[in-house]
Prior knowledge:
Elements: H1 3-17, H2 29-53
Amino acid sequence: MSKDQSADRAKREADKVFKPVETHKPINDYARDQNSFNENRERLKAERLAREAKPESGSE
Length: 60
């Protein structure tokens, strides 16, 4: 193998190891509020379903 081929191979191996990291766009206020609202709604829904699943004792 010549020097150029070994340098190219080393560069390819380094590129495989050091892949660029995907960055996410910073979340804006509206998206953050929507995300918070949706998480809260899902939490409340789960709590309501859990309450409804419990058998009522002595209310009737």
